[in-house]
Amino acid sequence: MTDNRTFGVTRRGLLGAFAATALVAAPSYTSAFGVLKGAGDIRRIRMYSGRTGEAIDTIYWIEGEYIPEVMKEINYFMRDWRSDESMKMDMRTIDIMAASHRLMDVNEPYMLLSGYRCPKTNAMLRSKSRGVAKNSLHMKGQAADLRLTSRSVGQMAKAAAACASGGVGRYSRSNFVHMDCGPVRSWGG
User: Fold this and answer.
1) How large is the C-alpha radius of gyration of the chain?
2) pLDDT tens profile 104-144
3) What is the mean pLDDT of residues 167-187?
4) Contacts of 38 (CB under 8 A, 6+ apart)
5) What are phi and psi of 142, to 5 degrees?
6) How far is the C-alpha of 157 from the C-alpha of 145, rounded, in Å?
7) Spatial CA neighbour of 140 closest among 122, 156, 128
8) In the chain, which residue ranges form alpha helices assigned H by DSSP?
9) How many CB atoms lie within 10 A of CB 1?
10) Long-range CB contacts (< 8 A, 24+ apart) of 185-188?
């Protein structure tokens, strides 16, 4: 029997630590296509939630593989904070978010306004706003509403649209961008 642990550190943990230090020296991607198609060795996501006070800054993909433990952390972070329910997020959405972030060349983490939404939360929000879809992809773990203080809604939407990998909604009055892994489309102003 082989024990992959050395002094309490797993092989995957060592790879993660190495990748984190290599991130600083990693070349920047010239387009989202390269990020989404695995042209790099690592993928990173940085977010915080004003609702819960939580933050996440993590490498979730190394050398062609998603890291299951990190994916669980992302799922929990992106939970419906109103009901404290979480769901397995579609990693394509996380990839779009990470690629967009990289294209904007910012260090600021996203502010997550909404990730997963349980049906009850979605119905409540829908009753208060006509901008909430009845069959929202948020309820499937396939969407996120995000904000950056250092970039405009237009800049964020352009970066997300450059990925050509899902839906991009501009909500200029509310100062956020919706990104999802559904059909390629855009809306809002």
Assistant:
1) 17
2) 999 999 999 999 999 999 999 989 988 888 899 999 999 99
3) 96
4) 64
5) -115, 15
6) 11
7) 122
8) 11-22, 32-36, 68-77, 91-104, 119-128, 153-162
9) 2
10) 186/157, 186/161, 188/157
Give the pLDDT score at 133.
87
pLDDT of residue 6: 36
What is the model's pLDDT at position 109? 98
Residues 120-130: b if buried by 16+ CB within 10 A, e if exposed: ebbeebeeeee
Q: Could you report the per-residue pLDDT of 74-110, keeping only the tens digit for each?
A: 999 999 999 999 999 999 999 999 999 999 999 999 9
Report the phi/psi class of residue 172: left, alpha or beta, with left for phi > 0 and alpha for psi in -120 to 50.
alpha
Q: Which residues pair with 110 in a beta bridge?
A: 47
Burial, 48: exposed, middle or buried (Cβ in 10 Å; 0-12, 13-18, 19+)? Answer: middle
Distance between CA atoms of 184 and 128, rounded to whole angstroms? 27
CA 148 to chain centre: 13
The Cα–Cα gap between 114 and 119 comes to 13
Q: What is the DSSP string of 100-149?
A: HHHHHT--SPEEEEES---HHHHHHHHHH-TTS-TT-GGGGT-EEEEE-S
Which residues are within 8 A (CB) of 123 and not within 5 positions of it... i.e. 6 or more apart? none
